[in-house]
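Before surveying the methods themselves, let us examine one representative protein, pairing a chain with its fold in token form.
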Amino acid sequence: MRILTWLRLVDDDGLFSLTHAAVYVAFACVLLGRQVSWSDWGCFIVAMASYRIKRHFERNGADSEVVARLGTAVAALQSDLRKLQTPERLAGLRDGLRPK
């Protein structure tokens, strides 16, 4: 149990942390060389940041209106990132990153 706590796979209440498990899976994909698109990484980072911000506000007693506005902003940002994942944009990015 100590190792799970040290790895942050269980939270302060002893419950399994899906967030930290997702982080470890993401890093494993990077280390194993799995191809992940930039927009997927962007959505993942935005989701992780929104989770951490939500936890911060939960622990510090945030105003519910601020949390609602923040959730709306995060949803809009995720929507914008999904729009950027069109095949044309991904092909342009791939062509732009090719060595010349």
